Amino acid sequence: MSLIKLGQSRGERPSRANSYSPAPMSTSRLELALRRMSQESSQHEYDVKHLESQLVENLSNFRAINGLLQDALGSIQRTTKRADTALNTQIPHISDELDESLDALAELAEALPTIRTQVADIRHVYTSGRQKAQSLVDDLTWLNTEFYERWRTIIFTPNSPVSLRWKALMRLVFAISFLMCTWLAWIALSGAYRAHRQRLVWGDRLMS
């Protein structure tokens, strides 16, 4: 009986060992699960922090964009007010000035032929005055010229500012004077030649 009990007791020990063997396996699984959960929680915490930083950055960008939109909206509102003010005040003033300008242009168009005639008269008077002034300058220049130069210009050139009758008279006097001088020179030369011949003749007679 004791041997049977001992055998039974020995046979019961392995069964107990077999009954307690799953405990270490469940502990390792639990540790592995805890590690996985801690890693996942760390990853989730990192993801949450990353998401939080992105949310903060996006929020700051949104605030900046909102500020820019508010500034743009304010500028558009101010521009709209200015445009309305210009539309209500300046455009009627511009229309009045345009009407006045059109009236002035119509008056100028009516007065343009008269002004053109007056300008033509002024131009004619200016041209005649300039010609008279040039004539006076030429006369003064002619009067300040020496007598010999004036005499030579009248006789030998057609540019002298004297009448044709005076030119003809001066040229006739010059021609008569020239002919008389030529005739006197011819007489003098003839007399000298005769005197020279007579001197030769009287010399020959005296020598003989």
From TrEMBL:
<feature type="region of interest" description="Disordered">
    <location>
        <begin position="1"/>
        <end position="26"/>
    </location>
</feature>
<feature type="transmembrane region" description="Helical">
    <location>
        <begin position="168"/>
        <end position="189"/>
    </location>
</feature>
<protein>
    <submittedName>
        <fullName>Uncharacterized protein</fullName>
    </submittedName>
</protein>
<feature type="compositionally biased region" description="Polar residues">
    <location>
        <begin position="16"/>
        <end position="26"/>
    </location>
</feature>
<keyword id="KW-0472">Membrane</keyword>
<keyword id="KW-0812">Transmembrane</keyword>
<keyword id="KW-1133">Transmembrane helix</keyword>
